[in-house]
């Protein structure tokens, strides 16, 4: 307790990172309080950003690993003689390194493997696969524009702070998951489908443990996740994706279009012909 008071910790649980000065700067050991989600991936992301330099040089052999090292990774592909672009990229990295991981590549074979031409910027979103590319020379404002909205996801998180946006006029899609791996896999699978129909619906990831009563109210069985339900707030109609079946984009696309064209009946179950999830489907709850 005394140690906690010394570290200005008054609420629990709490996480504080003790770190050396950044990038060779002089000074004493500092502390940074973690204020993000208490999940394995979120905490790992927080620590990763403090472990890495503000901007990393990435050899071609390490690019595949570097691209996957964090939820969002921003890479500049530049020639060795384009020092001004490296400096431009570094200036933006200094402002945003706590939010994103930054790296630059100068080897031509890495650029060729990515199907790009130097110079170029690429933003890799490992959360939902909505990567972005900016071709050609860039200024600081161009990098800033690329970063705008990068942390937001089309399929968001359903929680107490966001639940109002799912209970309005649009169709609401709820994906109940038991761990972060399920959430990431479903986001990558369904984001292109939801992108096409975003004017008409709002999709969110819901924690299957925290929102178990809500899942049951939709008629879902416990311990069979991920599970998908679509709810129409204006008439309280509910449509279910068959539990135990893989949530795949073509089937969900057909499901949503059938509902939107008023060809579905409340209580209808979709996905009967989707592949079974199989015994290897990950289970467990990984929030801390």
From TrEMBL:
UniProt cross-references to SUPFAM superfamilies, sorted A to Z: Thioredoxin-like
Catalysis: reaction(s): Catalyzes the rearrangement of -S-S- bonds in proteins
Localisation: Endoplasmic reticulum lumen
Cited InterPro entries: Thioredoxin-like_sf
Record key words, sorted: Endoplasmic reticulum, Isomerase, Redox-active center
The EC number(s) this enzyme carries: 5.3.4.1
Pfam families in alphabetical order: Thioredoxin_6
Main location: endoplasmic reticulum
Keyword NADP: no
Gene Ontology MF, one: protein disulfide isomerase activity
Gene3D superfamilies recorded: Glutaredoxin
One Gene Ontology CC term in the entry: endoplasmic reticulum lumen
GO process annotations (BP): protein folding; response to endoplasmic reticulum stress
Family, similarity comment: Belongs to the protein disulfide isomerase family.
PANTHER family recorded: PROTEIN DISULFIDE ISOMERASE, PROTEIN DISULFIDE-ISOMERASE A3
Protein's name according to its UniProt entry: protein disulfide-isomerase
Organism from which the protein derives: Polyplosphaeria fusca
């Amino acid at each position: 307790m005394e140690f906690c008071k010394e570290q200005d910790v008054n609420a629990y649980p709490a996480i504080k990172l003790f770190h050396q000065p950044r990038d060779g700067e002089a000074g004493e050991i500092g502390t940074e309080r973690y204020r993000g989600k208490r999940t394995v991936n979120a905490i790992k992301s927080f620590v990763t950003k403090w472990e890495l330099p503000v901007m990393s040089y990435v050899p071609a052999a390490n690019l595949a690993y570097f691209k996957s090292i964090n939820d969002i990774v921003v890479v500049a592909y530049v020639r060795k003689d384009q020092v001004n672009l490296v400096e431009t990229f570094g200036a933006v990295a200094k402002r945003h390194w706590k939010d994103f991981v930054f790296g630059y590549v100068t080897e031509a074979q890495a650029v060729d493997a990515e199907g790009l031409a130097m110079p170029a910027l690429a933003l890799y979103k490992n959360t939902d696969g909505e990567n972005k590319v900016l071709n050609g020379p860039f200024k600081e404002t161009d990098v800033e524009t690329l970063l705008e909205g990068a942390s937001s996801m089309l399929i968001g998180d359903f929680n107490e702070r966001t639940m109002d946006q799912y209970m309005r006029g649009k169709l609401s899609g709820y994906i109940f998951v038991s761990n972060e791996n399920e959430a990431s896999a479903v986001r990558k699978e369904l984001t292109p489908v939801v992108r096409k129909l975003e004017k008409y619906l709002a999709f969110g990831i819901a924690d299957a443990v925290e929102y178990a009563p809500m899942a049951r109210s939709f008629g879902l069985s416990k311990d069979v996740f991920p599970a998908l339900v679509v709810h129409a707030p204006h008439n309280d109609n509910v449509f279910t994706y068959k539990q135990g079946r893989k949530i795949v984009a073509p089937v969900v696309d057909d499901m949503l279009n059938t509902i939107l064209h008023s060809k579905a009946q409340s209580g209808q179950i979709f996905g009967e012909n989707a592949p079974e999830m199989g015994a290897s489907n990950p289970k467990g709850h990984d929030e801390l």
